[in-house]
Amino acid sequence: MQKAEIGCMNRLRCLAMAALACICLAMATACGRTPDSVLIQGPIMGTTYTVRVQPEAGLPAGPELQAQIQERLETLNARLSTWVDSSDVVRFNRAEADLWFPVSSDTASVVSAAQRIAQASEGAFDITVGPLVDLWGFGPLGQPERVPQAAEIERLLAATGYQRLEVRTQPPALRKSHPELSIDLSAIAKGYAVDELVVLLDRQGYLDFMVEIGGEVRTRGLRPDGRPWRIALEKPLRGSREVLRVIPLSDRAVASSGDYRNYFEYDGRRYSHTIDPRTGWPVAHGLGAASVVADTCMNADAWATALMVLGADAGLRLAQEQDLAANLIVATEAGFDELMTEAYQALANP
Fold it and tell me: In total, how many domains does the chain have?
């Protein structure tokens, strides 16, 4: 059997490309060269993070602030990752069914938000899709030797479904009703981590800053030049990078999901890393990318994935129903079409 040709040859490079693909930061001329701004960067969650703050008198900066940021991110990664054996997620996935499994408040908060969006999207977003992500080779197990058989997919579908998962926040715990059910927080954890860094910086007293993890962005206040932060959305192109649109962003978050960086090819067919939880198969519609602007990065992150699963028509309908600021990018023979909700149009064309 012919082995699959991997679109991204190793996880770190794959995630780094995916992170930069959906959203890039268009701030080089605005504040990248501003001596008064502080730039903090580092690796986390298989990708990278960037924090840019405008210094405030008496507040921690430089190595002290970076140490606080790194500590919080490493704590979150240790709790939410499917790649860390001791994480809440991995231990819950191995736990017995029908019993409440204690987790951290972070994990319970993320799962609670995920369950709300799963219900609102009627399962288009579903963190119990983890076994199917693994089956298709986009999880810790790595790429399979072949495309999964329909019978394998159906067997795992029987063990998935957000309805089989319960969460409580006091005391924080999870419970599953099927012994093989497992969760994967990859489509929401980075957004939550961004929000948590915003909380950290707010508590420190910072007024103007930008936080980005793996392409998911949230801002507070203004840039050093007194203007709104400007975030560039990329065209969903394979093998090259071009800016599609630049949007102003103050005190809000933006996240994107796309199928053009993380995928594999087998027998001439491309398989996206975005798995439809309702069918167990990678999405195969014409939607190239979905971007959502929201008050929190966690919500933007999860909703972008849900819309990517649904496709252009169903995704746009749901985004309008949910009053989301969403932009769906559809590849055409002539280039790209943008389908925007009314809330997004108001943002993109102030």
Answer: 1
Helix (H) / strand (E) element for 23: namely strand 23-25
What is the C-alpha to C-alpha distance for residues 241 and 155, in angstroms, rounded to an integer?
39
Rg of the Cα atoms in the chain: 20
Question: Would you say 79 and 92 are in contact if contact means Cβ atoms under 8 Å apart?
Answer: no
Residue 172, token pair as written in the block: 């924080």
In a domain, 219, yes or no: no
- Do 343 and 327 contact (CB within 8 A), yes or no? no
Cα–Cα distance for residue pair 22/191, rounded to 1 Å? 14
95-147 residue pLDDT tens: 999 999 999 999 999 999 999 999 999 999 999 998 888 887 776 666 666 78
Q: What is the DSSP letter of 3?
A: P
Asked if residue 116 belongs to a domain, the reply is yes
Give me 259's structure tokens: 């199928």
CATH of residue 135's domain is: 1.10.3980.10
Could you say which residues of the chain have pLDDT below 50? 1-35
Structure tokens at 125: 């977003």
Buried b (16+ CB within 10 A) or exposed e, 26-53: bbeebbeebeebbebeeebbbbbbbbbb
Could you tell me the two tokens for 13?
């490079």
Boundaries of domain holding 112: 94-176
Residues 88, 72 contacting (CB under 8 angstroms): no
Task: Please give the Cα distance from 77 to 47 (Å, whole number).
Answer: 11
- Domain annotation covers residue 132: yes
Q: Report the alpha-carbon distance of residue 232 to residue 111 in Å, rounded.
A: 29
pTM for the full predicted model = 0.86
Q: Give the separation between CA 202 and CA 204, rounded to whole angstroms.
A: 5
User: In a 3-state reduction of DSSP, which class is residue 318?
Assistant: helix
Question: Does residue 169 form part of some domain?
Answer: yes
